[in-house]
Amino acid sequence: MGYIEPAPIIDLENPFESMMSRFHIAAQHLGLDDEVYNVLKSPARQVIVSLPITMDDGSIQVFEGYRVIHSTILGPSKGGVRYDMGVNIDEVKALAAWMTWKCAVVDIPYGGAKGGIKCNPRAMSSGEIERLTRSYTESMVDVFGPDRDIPAPDMGTGPREMAWMMDAYSRSKGMTVNAVVTGKPIVLGGSLGRTEATGRGVMVSALAAMEKLKINPYKATFAVQGFGNVGSFAALLLEERGGTIVSVSDISGAYVNEKGINIKEAIEYRNNNNGTLEGYTGADKINGNDILTLEVDVLIPAAKEDVITAENANNIKAKLIVEGANGPTSAKADKIINDKGIMVAPDILANAGGVTVSYFEWVQNRLGYKWTAERVSRRSDRIMKDAFEVVYKTSVAYDVPMRIAAYIVAIDKVAKTYKYRGGY
Ligand code: NAD
């Protein structure tokens, strides 16, 4: 099938181009017609605003803010807001599309969006960040809304910024609208279970994949790259289910203990050590990147994008890769990994536990009700397990790797919904 406007594939080592190249492959498997293909690859709405802010020294600085709504076909759009100097419209566009596929793959009724402000929050005071956040929210009052577009934290933002956004939006409406953002502090309507949600989803995906590969969790060994929110919870929950975590790593390096690292202890150490494992003595230190090629059953990249590349993919010995991070595997590495017969639980499936519990936060806010942590975990585990099964079956039916299967599931769902809803 010929496309009128094929998705640009400029640099396959770039995670966003990687995403589009996989979209393209999945679209071909589905035989997606050109019209729908073009609708799905183009963002529905792009907003760029200038935000003049009075800094603490009295000067006025103008910041650029973005919000891209990729799709509202499945429901109101959902996606984080990042504060970073690297934010630009192309990145925001790609991440917005990514959110569309992620929500569709776990079957939650959301479209995809992303936002950001080009700024360096580490060089700003809390007051400056608050003014910037309120100004951004005010300028997006006609974009955001619990039934329209629901922001959440991303790089450089957290519960504090979400509280300001919720308050600024609520003031503009003259009433409390806590369902307008997720990732809020618990007292403002945040959900129990949100903090560990992504790591928990990684654990559920890992166990589901291991069942298919007939790997016994009690005999399995794991290596987890990244010991932040996602990596440390995934490691802890897998250890609790009988797994042996032989290696963890963070920005300070990788730590190996063949007998298994005591994850609870390592988390405690990190918490009392400025957030890093530097100096951890419960394991031997090795070069950070070497964690990827250790002799383990399961490798969990949960640090950053583009770590598994064409250069190191050949040396990976794990039987299963469960992607906690977004875009940890480049498109060029995909082929090598597939040829080696390694199963991959891809990012848009394996790390969707976070957005799933964000969805629960929104549901609870709209119900005016609070669920227990136990109910949140039970329901998110079920969503993650069901999504895994659907993607697995699709991978068997189309005879494609799990990653392409996940895109097929997502694109098929959005395309079918689009056709039912119809256009002009
Ligand atoms: P985090 O900041 O809490 O932790 C990141 C960890 O990675 C830290 O331990 C850091 O030291 C480590 N790290 C950074 N660079 C590294 C390197 N080169 N080698 C080894 N370790 C390195 O971040 P997080 O929230 O855990 O997110 C990790 C990844 O998961 C990101 O790709 C993020 O986009 C993705 N993700 C997070 C969530 C979530 O809910 N937090 C949801 C979906 C996806």
UniProtKB/TrEMBL annotation:
Residues 191-422 form the Glutamate/phenylalanine/leucine/valine/L-tryptophan dehydrogenase C-terminal domain. The record marks D154 as: Important for catalysis. Keywords: NAD, Nucleotide-binding, Oxidoreductase. Signal peptide: none annotated. NAD(+) binds at T198, N229. PROSITE patterns: GLFV_DEHYDROGENASE. Pfam families: ELFV_dehydrog (PF00208), ELFV_dehydrog_N (PF02812). Substrate binds at K78, K102, S358. One of its GO terms (biological process) is L-glutamate catabolic process. CDD domains: NAD_bind_1_Glu_DH (cd01076). The active site is at K114 (proton donor). InterPro entries: Aminoacid_DH-like_N_sf (IPR046346), Glu/Leu/Phe/Val/Trp_DH (IPR006095), Glu/Leu/Phe/Val/Trp_DH_C (IPR006096), Glu/Leu/Phe/Val/Trp_DH_dimer (IPR006097), Glu/Leu/Phe/Val_DH_AS (IPR033524), Glu_DH (IPR014362), NAD(P)-bd_dom_sf (IPR036291), NAD_bind_Glu_DH (IPR033922). Belongs to the Glu/Leu/Phe/Val dehydrogenases family. This is Glutamate dehydrogenase.
